[in-house]
Specification:
Layout: E1 4-5, H1 18-27, H2 33-53, E2 59-61, H3 69-76, H4 93-100, E3 102-104, E4 109-111, E5 116-118, E6 125-127, E7 130-131, H5 143-153, E8 158-163, H6 165-170, E9 173-174, H7 186-203, E10 207-211, H8 221-235, E11 242-246, H9 256-260, E12 266-270, H10 278-284, E13 290-296, H11 306-320, E14 326-330, H12 350-355
Parallel strand pairs: 1-14, 2-8, 7-9, 8-10, 10-11, 11-12, 12-13, 13-14
Antiparallel strand pairs: 3-4, 5-6
Helix pairs in contact: 1-2, 5-7, 7-8
EC number: 2.1.1.14
Protein name: Methionine-synthesizing 5-methyltetrahydropteroyltriglutamate--homocysteine methyltransferase
Keywords: Methyltransferase, Transferase
Length: about 350
């Protein structure tokens, strides 16, 4: 059985925390912005090579971040609160000020960071975007397109990854004094997503992974079903592009039926934490849609029971009438996993090492 194999995202820090050291050197004035960019580019190339060497059919791109992928998305679509707009929005000054604040008497700036919040039930935290009344959106960064081109230039089959518009707004908060709610701004935001996807299609992307992790929450269908229908009705209009709608950290549950009906080309299922969805999903998701089976736990350190997961995979393939309609993947991004076992070799016994899979 030959299936497409992939992951939803890769740890960006590096096997020896290279990114942390690089960013901190930049903050301390010991590395230039160009050195930061060059170091990050080299790290991305190293990570893509590692993924390809392990036989992945394609590598995710756009999952790399200097600080936080939610912040990256907000920054890219122009959600930059007024207090940061005096800074260099074209470079990293405004970006890092949103991430960690900026106090600089020499330029008369004293601004706090955005609020930080727990990323679902993980140990990761994200910066909470702030949506103002009359919020305007504009594509201010082509980071994801640039990284897709980087990967393609190095010879890798690549799949761009972007945080979806509904989750971006649902994870945001209203700016101080705003009367509107973040989700009220979906219609204004969607043209920017359409523009971004259009640029990815023009660059040669076949599939784009659109992460909508809020689908794993207990949602009010009367509120969210129309929002998702509006969003994906718009995004589906980008010619020549296939959308993989991705959720993780739990089952879709009551959200499954209406999610399955959205105009996308594939749906990812977290079949580690959401294994209870398996039978219902195999029936509910139309046969012309790919199912991306998240069978390998993206947030734990133990080796998978491959015999058990292969049995699930065979069941899905049989239900979908062929391997082409099923991909095998991680349950979520590997962002939450340690990078390498090599540094542990001198500290753990062989039996324990044999149980682990970083």
């Amino acid at each position: 059985m030959s299936l497409k194999s992939t992951i939803l995202g890769f740890p960006r820090m590096g096997s020896d925390r290279q990114l942390k050291k690089l960013v901190e050197a930049f903050w301390a004035g010991k590395a230039t912005e160009q050195e930061l960019a060059d170091g990050a580019k080299a790290l991305r190339a190293e990570h893509w090579a590692l993924q390809a060497s392990h036989g992945l059919s394609e590598v995710p791109v756009g999952d790399f971040s200097y600080y936080d992928h939610v912040l990256d998305t907000a920054f890219a679509v122009g959600i930059i609160p007024a207090r940061y707009q005096q800074l260099d929005a074209a470079g990293t000054q405004a970006y890092f000020a949103m991430a960690r604040g900026l106090q600089d008497k020499a330029i008369g700036v004293d601004v706090p960071s955005l609020e930080m919040k727990k990323w679902f039930d993980t140990n990761y935290h994200y910066m909470v975007p702030e949506i103002a009344d009359g919020q305007t959106f504009a594509l201010g960064s082509t980071k994801i397109v640039d990284e897709f081109n980087e990967a393609r230039a190095l010879g890798y089959a690549a799949r761009p990854v972007v945080l979806g518009p509904v989750s971006l707004l649902a994870l945001s908060k209203a700016a101080k004094g705003a009367a509107s709610k973040p989700l009220d701004h979906l219609s204004a935001l969607l043209p920017v997503y359409v523009e971004l996807l259009g640029r990815l299609a023009a660059a040669g992307a076949e599939w784009v992974q659109v992460d909508e992790p809020v689908l794993a929450l207990d949602l009010d269908a009367a509120v969210y079903q129309p929002l998702f229908a509006r969003a994906y009705g718009a995004l589906a209009g980008v010619a020549g592009l296939k959308l993989l709608l991705t959720s993780y950290f739990d089952r879709l549950g009551d959200n499954l039926a209406w999610t399955a009906a959205l105009p996308v080309h594939g749906i990812h299922l977290d079949l580690v934490r959401g294994a209870a969805d398996l039978d219902a999903a195999a029936t509910a998701i139309p046969s012309d849609k790919v199912i991306s089976a998240g069978l390998i736990n993206g947030r734990n350190i133990w080796k998978a029971d491959l015999a058990k997961q292969l049995a699930v995979l065979h069941k899905l393939v049989d239900a979908r009438r062929g391997a082409a309609a099923v991909w095998v993947s991680s349950s979520c991004s590997l962002l939450h996993s340690p990078h390498s076992l090599r540094p542990e070799a001198g500290h753990l016994d062989d039996e324990t090492l044999g149980w682990l899979s970083f």
